[in-house]
Amino acid sequence: MPQLIAGNWKMHCLAAEAVALARDIAAGAAGVTAELLVCPTALHLAAVAQALNGSVVTVGGQDCHQSKQGAHTGDIAGPMLLDAGATRVILGHSERRQNHGETDELVREKTVAAVAAGLIPIVCVGENADQRAGGQETEVVGWQIAGSLPKPFTGVVAYEPIWAIGTGKTATEEDVAIMHAFIRDELVRQFGDAGQTVRILYGGSVKAANAASLLAVPNVGGALVGGASLNAQEFLAIARAAQSG
Ligand code: PEP
Question: Could you tell me the pTM of the whole model?
């Protein structure tokens, strides 16, 4: 399976900037064997999807509501993302868990809703700095997997240690190898054989300079990229460092 390189654009880019960034990525994607995904703000999703129509780059959302419709001011439902051109959706990102109080239970409900809408969920897990300092990283991530992923689970998991997100601090290859092996074992323990094929992305200050070594670690199925995905050439360089599977 080719690796998946996903860009999380977070709350960046006005509409014209998002479309230009998408076009630049699509224009440079020839020869890239990794799957490419960009996740703009929902407001620009349709425009970005239109700009990428006919290219190899796919589009995803950054969150969706756990209901398919209803009286939820300001929220966005999975079917709306799909309708706007998304094929995947990031769920349970640490910024949503921290800033919006999202619990494992809510992330699981959102994951169920995303799958029901026809989207592939990318569910984020990862420990914070205190938890790592206390040696609790596997315990925390094990609980997050148990609580956030519905059974059966059809989707992608992103391991994103919170202390490495947007900080420039990258987990070492050894950290990544240990955590991804742990996550693989947990997926198999909790989901049986199906857990063998779940893609596990690494996220946390991935950039062109460290992508090749991180993406070569066993059980790394790709990368979830924040800051570096806002620069088309940097994002493409990460994608070119990916393994073709
Ligand atoms: C992220 O927010 O998902 C992320 C990995 O960010 P960054 O690459 O900027 O650390």
Answer: 0.97
